[in-house]
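Annotated sample (chain length 210).
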Amino acid sequence: RDLAAGATCTPTVINVGSSAHLRATESFSSSSSSVGSTPNTHDGKSSWINTQLPNDPDDDLSTYAQSKLALMQFSTLLRHWLLRTRNNDATTFPRVRILDAHPGLVWTPLLRNHIGDNAVGILTKTGLSGWIYKSSSEGADAIVSALDATIPTMPTEEAAQVYFVNGKPDGHAASESVSIEESVRLWNCVIAPEVEGVVELPKGWGSASW
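Output written by the structure step:
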């Protein structure tokens, strides 16, 4: 966005979410009850993603739903880590906003593929697609509108989730998406094994920082 002369801009990360995260199913083995434990089906060597996610097409978008919940949980990890890091060294680490935003129902190839050619044909022919769904540009506008969010003034509020839906804050999000315990569990059980030796993590990144 263009800024007026003399205006400042707070660094902002917007993770694109989806209401689909509300129906995400449990990603971990029921026997893994403690935070940070490893699912009993993971041998510590093979990829959890390759062994746990279905090989079949994601016809019901359940895997998509899980991925969107996981992205929001990663936002939670970032917010907590940044808050802790700023509290230790506010001069080196500027304030960064980590926001989640669901654009609403957008007429995307993913959605069209999901509902099928017959439904797409009917919705397109009748013009209902334009009434029910947003265009890609309208969806993008809903995401970018999160840049206008008010920055929390209290340090403790910087770790609070701000979830935009259709361009408006305070959307309904699953409790798992903001749970630091569930988010740490996601990192330790799923993400960390995948990025180990591949991604150089920031100094101090880890469960102790959350």
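Annotation: The first strand starts at residue 12 and ends at 16.
Annotation: The CA atoms of residues 18 and 152 lie 23 Å apart.
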